[in-house]
Design goal:
Chain lengths: 321, 273, 440
């Protein structure tokens, strides 16, 4: 163990860590041990990410300064491809499509899931067990199958238009009208993902001690008062997670528009990853380099958006019970 | 909690509505498995087949490759889930509860991968696994994706919510951080583990592009690769695809049924009394 | 509590070492055989079966070379191929479309086959196809088949019922629109044709030639010609089909899939010749009610191109360690015994067309082939006028496909759509330095 110990203990820097809260004087003495434990604990993750994500990322950034060829000497082009991506109106349009989709789906998905989770929490044990399984079932259906099913429902003579007909409306050309196509794709998008969001929120809700609600109820707080004063503040950590991952995943949406609309009508549902996928299609050095660079730019955009969310929610610190 | 009659009725109606809207597509998929190759595409929409045929289901069950793909994918997914929960929980605990030098740097380092689009590192990560000789092994499906920023982030958020008092008390008693992690935090983690475990399991199960890139050995063919055989832009075999998807979803549904009970009332974070 | 750390590290170490030791992808064989990998892009089911049958036969016929056939799904082909190339694991042999031959040759991706195959193999290739695989005087691919991208299918029973003459199919675009209007009845639409940009990008090449005698770029690839007035007529044609409700507004499958016609949802279909194979395999009842004709021409001139001749070749990777062995297999499969390819065309239901004179001769004695009504029409009226697929970057095709879609769906009027496309094409020309790089 000593060998291992000394190895993991190497990064243990005795320099004082200014970020650490100074709540406990005792902590200063323990810092060395925290360092050792902490590095031991993050080591597997750090190493795995280093080999399979960070190194490939660094290498990709390096490659993006070349016109990538696997058969001839690659030509160094500096930041040319970044310029091309920045210049490309279709790239930016696709980013807007991704953002619009995220705005359509993420808040809606969270609200639906929160309502559903609150509802499940009130159910009897058996009914709750049934619902916990049920809400997750859509995630079991593959995206391909779900896409086809929804394409059906959106047909000219499909179920959705039939229901509109009952209201004396429609028919709407769901998947080929630029105004409707993306919202039409958002529906299966939410449908496929609300299961996990519900379970996450349920797990979070179940952690809120019942007596908080009971005392609030005694104070005469209504449903909304309880929601905004107890539930949401106490779920802040979980909500931050859902917002960040929700946005990240939503902007990277790919399969639904590929199968349902092929990015149409006229790029109205061409999400960033679909755009990148289409630019990757040619077997030329240009196509490889361009789509690689575009995906690196997408990385920057996603990182920036997440940073904004982190700042907005500003819940980076532990909530002290 | 005692409920009034209108509340009960309301609950029952809501449960029915939700389950119908969720079950309908599943039922549609299962029933489409009884249809002919392209009968599914027929307009106007038809729920039931003209003729119930078992050929799709029996053809898939009779295909030794299907059962092998199911088996190897379940095994891979379970190992993957266990490994990723281990790796990510350890890091999550450190980031949530420990103070250490360079914490901010490593936090950003561990979180950043969440924002990297798969395409950005598709070629280069393939080069890495190829150099490491991992192609055509189960390891190539399991190890590269095991460290997951999103999962670590979630569990860390969960641990952030644990009251400080517990730890303080244990520290005063002379417990080490490992002991606190193992004796206090792990026993409380059933719900987040189940939620993240299911997500990890499904992520492995639904992976398509990565297995296609890294696996050519028929013995290691993953279930999504198997189902992909029924797809083609020159006409899909919808009957087989639907029957196959239905059968493939069964183990996952079984798993959900088993593990949902861990997300229950009474998982109380100790300390708040 | 150290023990736990040790256990975890031990687990990690074991997993990692298993990963490293369980090495895969070997090409050495104890018996000294050379293994040649062959990636086949996934097509219709019968094609996979045909490839497997003949690869097995080849492997059994000799003991020097083992061909390892791998079927790769079309949707991940580009990713898988480029990843493999990046890691130095590209397959020795791959299916390559005609459109990718010239760009691949330009970056030295393929081994020239002239030194690897006997000269007779090339003299056997039909003259109109020879150019498809030749770049700078060298052959970089061996052709397998051609498939016209666009022919007209129509339902003789519905045509008769609508009071039209099934023996006299429409000759001009105007006549086609009249037919489509008359045949649109109730839930059955007049026809199907591509309506999404990425599908239009390639499926309209033939009609681009038909309308303007050229693609929307000048001969030396230095400038877009998309704003020429003749292209407006092409966009108007598509626009009328879509906006008058003559085609389904929400297609369930892409252009390449003929299922909606097979299901009887439309009376006519613009489709590739490969749909014949799909009809014969999956929609047998539709075959006797179906007739095939050359797609109508803008002004009725049957000698104008209406289709590009798409199709597939086999290429040998420039970095392959067994080029000669790979080429030997290509020779066996595509350039050897005409009976092997004749078997292919028969399996395809004669929905694809030969590229070798000797295979034509082999089929001439086959009553199935000579009596096939579809084959006769397509090989006499479509293939001779078919043009090669463009070798320029896909972005150009996509820009023009998007212009058609934009006009169809009313995003912009026809001249504006074309202007946008021209600007996009000029941008591609500039960024990819295409001026002067047109093959030949």
């Amino acid at each position: 163990m000593t060998a291992l110990d000394s190895r993991v203990a190497v990064p243990a820097d005795p320099a004082p860590d200014g970020v650490a809260p100074q709540r406990r004087g005792r902590r200063a003495a323990r810092r060395g041990r925290d360092n050792r434990t902490a590095y031991l604990m993050i080591a597997p993750m750090v190493v795995l990410l280093g080999i399979f994500v960070m190194w490939p990322l660094v290498y990709s950034v390096y490659l993006s300064t070349f016109k990538i060829s696997f058969y001839e000497e690659p030509e160094f082009v500096g930041l040319d491809f970044y310029q091309y991506v920045l210049d490309s109106p279709r790239f930016w349009e696709s980013i807007w499509v991704g953002l619009y989709y995220a705005v359509l789906t993420v808040p809606t998905g969270i609200v639906i899931a929160l309502l559903l989770a609150s509802f499940i929490k009130t159910l009897s044990r058996r009914a709750a067990a049934f619902m916990k399984t049920t809400v997750y079932l859509p995630a079991v259906v593959s995206t391909v199958v779900a896409s086809v099913l929804f394409v059906f429902m959106y047909q000219d003579e499909g179920v959705v238009n039939w229901m509109l007909g009952l209201l004396n409306r429609g028919p709407v050309n769901w998947l080929n009208d630029p105004g409707y196509a993306l919202p039409a794709i958002a529906v299966p998008g939410i449908w496929l993902s609300f299961g996990i969001t519900t379970l996450i929120l349920l797990a979070g809700l179940l952690d809120i001690p019942e007596n908080y609600y009971e005392s609030a109820q005694l104070d005469g707080a209504g449903f909304f008062a309880r929601l905004f004063r107890i539930t949401i503040p106490l779920l802040k950590n979980v909500l931050l997670y859902l917002l960040v991952t929700g946005f990240t995943l939503a902007i990277q949406l790919f399969e639904l528009p590929l199968i349902m609309t092929n990015g149409g009508p006229v790029d109205a549902t061409t999400t960033p990853n679909l755009y990148i996928f289409n630019s990757f299609r040619d077997l030329t050095p240009y196509a490889t380099s361009f789509s690689l660079t575009a995906s690196l730019m997408l990385f920057v955009v996603l990182g920036a958006i997440s940073l904004v969310i982190f700042r907005l929610v500003n819940s980076d610190k532990a909530i002290d019970g | 909690m005692k409920k009034t009659v209108p509340q009960r009725v309301f609950s029952a109606v809501l449960i029915t509505l939700i389950s119908v809207s969720v079950m309908f597509p599943l039922a549609w998929m299962a029933i489409a498995g009884f249809k002919g190759k392209t009968e599914v595409l027929r307009s106007p929409f038809q729920f039931f087949p003209d003729m119930w045929r078992w050929d799709n289901y029996s053809a898939i069950l009779a295909d030794p490759q299907f059962l092998r793909a199911m088996g190897i994918t379940v095994v891979g997914a379970l190992i993957f889930t266990a490994l990723s929960l281990t790796v990510n929980t350890l890091a999550a605990y450190a980031f949530a509860r420990l103070e250490f030098t360079g914490k901010r740097f490593w936090w950003v380092y561990c979180l950043t991968p969440m924002f990297i689009p798969a395409m950005a590192i598709l070629l280069t990560s393939f080069m890495v696994v190829s150099k490491l000789g991992m192609l055509d092994t189960l390891a190539v499906l399991i190890i590269p994706g095991a460290a997951s920023s999103a999962q670590m982030f979630f569990i860390r958020q969960f641990y952030l919510g644990f009251p400080m008092a517990v730890e303080e008390a244990a520290l005063v008693d002379g417990a080490t951080r490992w002991q606190i992690f193992v004796r206090v935090f792990l026993p409380q983690s059933a719900a987040p583990f189940v939620v993240m475990g299911i997500a990890a399991y499904l992520a492995y199960w639904n992976a398509y592009v990565w297995p296609v890139l890294t696996i050519t050995d028929p013995d290691l063919t993953q279930i999504m690769q198997f189902l992909g055989n029924f797809r083609s832009d020159r006409g899909n075999d919808w009957g087989l695809l639907m029957a196959g998807s239905t059968l493939a979803s069964l183990p996952t549904i079984a798993l959900l049924l088993v593990f949902q009970r861990f997300i229950v009332n009474g998982v109380r974070i100790s300390g708040i009394k | 509590m150290r023990r736990r750390g040790i256990v975890l590290l031990a687990i990690a170490a074991v997993t990692a070492s298993t990963a490293l030791s369980a090495c895969g992808g070997g090409s050495e064989d104890p018996a000294g055989k050379t293994t040649v990998t062959f990636w086949q892009q996934k097509f219709e089911d019968y094609q996979q079966a045909w490839f497997k049958k003949h690869v097995d036969a080849y492997n059994a016929s000799q003991d020097k070379v083992k061909v390892d056939l791998q079927v790769v799904p079309a949707d991940t082909w580009a990713q898988k191929l480029k990843a493999a190339q990046a890691a130095g694991k590209a397959p020795d042999i791959a299916t390559t479309s005609y459109g990718n031959v010239a760009p691949g040759a330009a970056q030295s991706q393929f081994a020239p086959l002239d030194d690897l195959l006997p000269a007779e193999a090339f003299t056997d290739i039909k003259d109109n196809v020879k150019g498809f695989v030749t770049v700078g005087g060298k052959h970089y691919a061996y052709p397998m088949l051609v498939e016209p991208s666009t022919v007209l299918y129509y339902r003789t029973d519905l045509v008769t019922a609508a009071g039209l003459d099934p023996t006299n199919p429409p000759k001009t675009w105007d006549e086609l629109l009249q037919w489509a209007t008359k045949l649109t009845q109730g839930k059955v639409k007049g026809m199907t044709i591509a309506s999404a940009g990425p599908d239009l990008g390639w499926s309209s090449w033939g009609l681009q030639y038909n309308a303007c005698g050229r693609l929307p770029i000048n001969d030396d690839w230095s400038k877009s010609t998309a704003t020429e007035p003749c292209f407006e007529k092409l966009l108007d044609f598509y626009k009328t089909l879509y906006q008058s409700g003559l085609i389904p507004k929400t297609p369930k499958v892409g252009y390449a899939d003929g299922a909606p016609y097979g299901q009887g949802e439309v009376a006519m279909m613009a489709g590739g010749s490969w749909v014949i194979g799909q009809l014969k395999n999956d929609f047998k009842a539709m075959v006797p009610k179906t007739a095939v004709a050359a797609f109508p021409s803008i002004d009725g001139d049957p000698a104008k191109t209406t289709a590009t001749l798409g199709g597939w070749t086999l290429t040998v990777d420039a970095k392959s360690k067994g080029k000669q062995q790979a080429a030997d297999f290509v020779k066996y499969l595509l350039a050897g015994d005409p009976a092997i390819m004749a078997d292919f065309f028969k399996t395809s239901g004669f929905s694809k067309y030969t590229v070798r004179t000797s295979v034509d001769q082999a089929l001439a004695g086959n009553p199935d082939a000579t009596s096939d009504p579809f084959m006769k029409v397509i090989s006499e009226k479509v293939v001779p006028y078919g043009k090669q697929e463009p070798a320029y970057p896909w972005d150009i095709s996509l820009a023009f496909g998007t212009a058609i879609e934009s006009a169809m769906k009313g995003k912009a009027d026809v001249p504006t759509s074309l202007k946008t496309a021209a600007a996009a094409i000029d941008d591609v020309i500039k960024k990819q330095s295409l001026a002067g790089t047109a093959p030949k």
